[in-house]
Amino acid sequence: MSAPVAIVTGGAGALGVAIATTLLDDGFRVALFDRRGAADAADRLARTGEAIGVEADVSDEESVRAAVERVDTTWGRVDALVNNAGIEPAHSLEGMELGTWQATLDVNLTGPALMIKHCVPMWRRQGGGRVVSIGSRVWLGGGWTPAYSASKAGLVGLTRTACRELGPLGVTVNVVAPSFLHTAFNAQKAEAAFLDSYVGRFAEASPLGRLVEPVDVANAVAFLVSDRARNITGEVLHVAAGTQLAPAVQ
C-alpha cells in the first residue's frame, strides 16, 4: 500500500512545519498549503520524506478547489487534513473595523469549512479520512482578540457538526486546542504587548512548569490522524501543559 497523504494548511509557519515534520516521520506524504513560502518549506522538508508546497489561500474557494485538485492529481488521495492556517490581528470590539473581523473569520473558520468541503469527494471515494483543526483554549472563555476568539469557538461548532455528517463516510473530525504556543514570533508579540513577564506567567501557571511547544501540538495531531484514534471524533484535545490561567489570558 502506498504511503498516506496529509494536507497541512498554514504549512510554511513554525507550527505547520512542526506538524508536517512529525507526519513525514510517521510515513505520510505531505502537501503544505500556504499563501506564500509553501514551496520553500516543502523543499526544506523533502529530505525527510515526500513533500510538496502548494500556493493556496484558504479563504478563497477557487484557490482551495485548485489546491486540493493538485493533491488529487499528484497522489490521488487525502488521508488527513490538518486545518492549521490562522490569523490573529489585534483589536478591541470598540475599535474593530469590520474588515478585520471578516478577514479573521474568513481564514480561521471559513477556511477549514472550505477545505473539508473540497476533500469530501476523495474521502467518499477512498472510504474515510481524518480532519484535525488547530483551535485554541480561548474557545472556552474568550481571549484578548474578539474575532480570533469567536473564530476558534466557531471551529468547535463546525467540528461537532462535521463529525456527524462525515461519520458515515468513515471520517473523524477533531480539534487540537493549545494554550499559548511558545514560538519566537508569539514570544516577541506577547512581550511587546504585555512586558517580559507575560510569557513566564504561562510556565508558572502550569503544573509542569513549562510552555507548550509546536512539537507538542504536532504529536497530538499525529495521534488523532492515526488508527489509534479511529473511534475519537467530535472532540477537543487541549494541549495546555495543565495551564489553569483564566481563559481571557490564553
From TrEMBL:
InterPro entries xrefs: NAD(P)-bd_dom_sf, SDR, SDR_fam
Recorded superkingdom: Bacteria
Signal peptide positions on this chain: none
Aminoacyl-tRNA synthetase among keywords: no
Oxidoreductase is among the record's keywords: yes
Keyword tags: Oxidoreductase
One of the record's GO molecular function terms: oxidoreductase activity
Protein family membership: Belongs to the short-chain dehydrogenases/reductases (SDR) family.
Protein name: 3-oxoacyl-ACP reductase
Gene source species: Streptomyces violaceusniger
